[in-house]
Amino acid sequence: MKKIYLDHSATTPVDPKVLKEMLPYFTQKFGNASSIHGFGQEALAGADRAREQVANFLNCETGEIVFTSGATESNNLAVRGFIKALQKNKANQNKKFHIITSLVEHDAILEPCMELEKNGIEVTYLPVKSNGVVDINKFEKSIKDNTVLISVMYVNSEVGSIQPIREMGKIIKKINEKRLKDWQRLSAKDRGEKPQKIYFHTDATQAVNFLNCDTKYLHVDMLSLSGHKIYGPKGIGALFVKNETPLAAMQLGGHQEKNMRSGTLNVVGIVGLGKAISMLDKKNVEKNNKKIAALRDMLVLGIKKNIPDVVLNTDRANATPSHAHFSFLDVEGESSLISLDLEGIAVSTGSACASGSLKASHVLLAMGIKVEVAHNSVRFTLGKNNTAEEIRKTIKVLPPIIKRLREMNPLYKN
Amino acid sequence: MKKIYLDHSATTPVDPKVLKEMLPYFTQKFGNASSIHGFGQEALAGADRAREQVANFLNCETGEIVFTSGATESNNLAVRGFIKALQKNKANQNKKFHIITSLVEHDAILEPCMELEKNGIEVTYLPVKSNGVVDINKFEKSIKDNTVLISVMYVNSEVGSIQPIREMGKIIKKINEKRLKDWQRLSAKDRGEKPQKIYFHTDATQAVNFLNCDTKYLHVDMLSLSGHKIYGPKGIGALFVKNETPLAAMQLGGHQEKNMRSGTLNVVGIVGLGKAISMLDKKNVEKNNKKIAALRDMLVLGIKKNIPDVVLNTDRANATPSHAHFSFLDVEGESSLISLDLEGIAVSTGSACASGSLKASHVLLAMGIKVEVAHNSVRFTLGKNNTAEEIRKTIKVLPPIIKRLREMNPLYKN
Known about the structure:
CATH topology of the largest domain in chain A: Aspartate Aminotransferase, domain 2
CATH class of the largest domain in chain A: Alpha Beta
Oligomer: homodimer
Order of helices and strands of chain A: EHHHEHEHEHEHHEHEEHHEEHEHHEH
Number of strands of chain A: 12
Largest sheet of chain A: 7 strands, mixed
Strand order of the largest sheet of chain A: 2-8-7-6-5-3-4
Strand content of chain A: 5-15%
Shape of chain A: globular
Number of helices of chain A: 15
Helix content of chain A: 40-55%
Number of domains of chain A: 2
CATH architecture of the largest domain in chain A: 3-Layer(aba) Sandwich
CATH superfamily of the largest domain in chain A: Type I PLP-dependent aspartate aminotransferase-like (Major domain)
Largest interface: A-B, 71 and 71 residues
């Protein structure tokens, strides 16, 4: 049985072209990029080229890229490393900082924020509309005088909703510019301290495959991404850190990555990430998006047509083309997942990162979905290698599964 | 020109057998190990087998292994995660903790210790003897009533000196047992709080290839290791954390690794680390050690015989078989390195992790070596694939290099 993979938000296979690029760095160009000799320089050259590929994609300087072990580390570093840097500054000792984030972020943002909250940082968790998108007016109103960091994800991993990052970036930029101008207008003796700039971070992990991640276009100061979500390897990620953004290292040691992240460079992983991202040129992305959206729409149509009592939680007008997040009412998501798995079809319930957990997804609850409906959810996330044949098989296999599972549920009304 | 690699302490090539084991996990068994479906379970099975391989090597339970992005992260987690866990306990709020480490540790231990020192933790940095080994009596005397953590490396990356970890472990165990007994002897009303156990961590990154790392034999509570130093991939490491050792996560998010280290499992890296460590069975280690020691001794003899005014900083009786750390008096180590590199021979000055730095190695200074002699140092570190032919070539090439460089130095006496 040929297996069908419809869980691309959890992880993606490494593209054979990416693997090919990586291979020489395991056994031949294996040097430590910190070494001065030929082996080291050869490795460093590989990492440098990858850094250029990432910088090119993000439209930034190579010196603004920090390689990490993945998006979780990038997100932790962005939030905690930023606050650590501010707190290191003695002038800030008695200041009460404010962070804004959203209720639908990944735990790698939410948990660092909650830890900071315990340590005296004020945090606002923005609600979302029923389609999973932050209300831009509520966003703007949440900004306060002591706001120092705003971290909002670009694309939600569960339902695929796209946040208006560029609009947020513009609003923040405007406020920063106004505050600075107001301050400059004051006479020297009235001025006091220069106003604190508000910095903007986005977790773009789920966006990179599909959306424009030009950091200047988005007006972001920091941006997280991961290798294994974009047909690159696991264990590698990056954080874009705009020049002059305060950031203190979380992992200390050999002073790699301009002191922002110590540890021997994972050259193989970096080379893989660089290659994977270089394949996301505008033309390829448009081609993939079109193909994936067509397959996703075929899946949605097929499911809606053949299965009663189903809710599509993904608002396709405001989501990446990959996502189709359903609730099959009165059927436990996990039962659907397991039944599909027996047919060789891989999907997810809620978010794969939190699978195994019995808690209802915090994202779905934030969207106003009832707990019991959240537990009925199944996430299909399509990728560039999926075929119409695979979608046809899924549409064929799923209705009898849902029917059978409902028949086993005494609460199901029919 | 066939290049000669004599810098195995900086990094090692991935063994082809290791790479072969890893390959299926890039493109076929690529699932997210947190996913419930077949792709996820296949990936998890690979990670689980690797976890068994590591646990087997360390003679511990699989649940005592935390996979990390490398030894730098393992070391940071061991020191900072341990103190964070103690500080989370409200009963400890007003306690002044004491950590013992040594002056010759890697920066990934020293820097976290120095940061903790700034935040009110007391730290003792043990001196070493001229051979780079900690004096066991000084070690014992440094233990105080408020000592909570001792972190001493197993093998030094620069000179290869072996620390008496097992002896230290026994001393700590004895003190812990005595304190507990004394406490138990007290009547219930006089007892007060149970005595704080002293925990013992060792950074075994440079030891794994050569020495017994049985955690029960060593009496350690935590142990760090890295993939790329043992013919495995970069970007992967592990921390052994004995059951009931307090440890709070540093990287927050998806709650992987029993909540101790969040982030999608780097399954490919984990599989590679497992395979690499599984190849270090007693027989292989003995065979490699014998071969490498013979080549190293051949190199030492050849250099001493053909080059005047040279100091061997490695005390071979107390070092791993890989290391031959020399000072060629009145010759800048970097000049030797570059000249050797032009002949296709890769060596290091001081520690590769800190290369590019102009500071004299803190390890050499701690051994009582003068700053100017430290700057003359060249580190040769041999590996399992080196040949007698390569050593002969090195012995042939080096004397004229040193002679030429000395002739360029007006300070050289001859």
